[in-house]
Amino acid sequence: xxxxxxxxxxxxxxxxxxxxxxxxxxxxxxxxxxxxxxxxxxxxxxxxxxxxxxxxxxxxxxxxxxxxxxxxxxxxxxxxxxxxxxxxxxxxxxxxxxxxxxxxxxxxxxxxxxxxxxxxxxxxxxxxxxxxxxxxxxxxxxxxxxxxxxxxxxxxxxxxxxxxxxxxxxxxxxxxxxxxxxxxxxxxxxxxxxxxxxxxxxxxxxxxxxxxxxxxxxxxxxxxxxxxxxxxxxxxxxxxxxxxxxxxxxxxxxxxxxxxxxxxxxxxxxxxxxxxxxxxxxxxxxxxxxxxxxxxxxxxxxxxxxxxxxxxxxxxxxxxxxxxxxxxxxxxxxxxxxxxxxxxxxxxxxxxxxxxxxxxxxxxxxxxxxxxxxxxxxxxxxxxxxxxxxxxxxxxxxxxxxxxxxxxxxxxxxxxxxxxxxxxxxxxxxxxxxxxxxxxxxxxxxxxxxxxxxxxxxxxxxxxxxxxxxxxxxxxxx
Length: 478
What we know:
By secondary structure, the protein is α+β, with helices and mostly antiparallel strands. It has helices at about 50-60, 95-100, 105-125, 155-160, 170-185, 210, 220-230, 240-255, 285-305, and strands at about 10, 15-25, 25-35, 40-45, 75-80, 85-90, 95, 140, 145-150, 200, 205, 270, 335, 340-345, 370, 385-405, 410-415, 425-435, 440, 445-460, 460, 465, 470-475.
């Protein structure tokens, strides 16, 4: 992607100083305009690039865009050797690809940033102009929150996207992916378009943002899902204007609910834990989980915890949150656990491995137990420890019922389609904080997974230390 060796000044005017970004056969530089004595950005496409002529044509089309949030093309340089350079305005800012490596943006900033990009692309769309390959590296954000979009029309050519693929639908999906990245710090799009860690997937599709980071507001999670074509509570978002309007509405809802309500349950939890302590911000499904807690507890207590055969009939409809005592089949039929092992990737690699089968032996009098720790958060030395279940094949899981040892365990249900030794590769789909000895973890929606991780993050007191355990596990179909 480097410009021809020895060439540092273009057209006797633009001196290239710092290479900011490299792509496939092109580079983006910070340069100095010697005539106007100001910084500019220069995209260089060296001779021999197969779409050099297309880049120049795309830049001329983009120059007609009328929105201050779109980078202005100041000059187009074409030399006799076939090279092309685009001179654009320079904004002292950081691209989101770098900014998000430090972690996701606060929810309100994520919403505001992507909303600005959406309105800019909506303006361009009204003129028949598109981006086509929107990703964090094409969006700049200054310390003051100013947003600029680079690469209208040109980026799709530089990244060799198929001709005709840059359209309204592609930009709407790109906005959904950009919002996903801002909310989670993970990238759900083609991996070559961002250096961020890839979004976790189940069944080949990215999980929703709130399954990656607890506490993502439902309204923003839903906009990202609808724009990406994942399941949402409304029609898919197919144009930048539709995404922009959805973000306007979602932003208003986020502001109205900014004050943290009283809740303490994790996502998808139904538990017999004591009443929640005030002042905690609930996760995406915490409130619904609290409503379900009493009803599901009746089922767990009555049904006991045991492992039975795989059900052969389709599950009936999910129970209403107001149901007083749903039958055991309301959670689906039980799934056989093929194997279970201890999981301690952040410790010494072992946590009483010989006891792991006791968690699924059908005897509540036996249990797998953790080691003893000096503090409830596993001594502060690691994020968690647990049991890894293999279901034998990808299965739709609607609930997992646990019998825990002690009272006051914080536990997460994590899921993945393939086995890994890194806890971060298993996606949190449900959880409970301060659980009692019986708890039902219900993913919302049901999740497709082969491997389930029962992940203990806080242990109950035992004697002069802290120790947890699992005496029974029952996996139910969704």
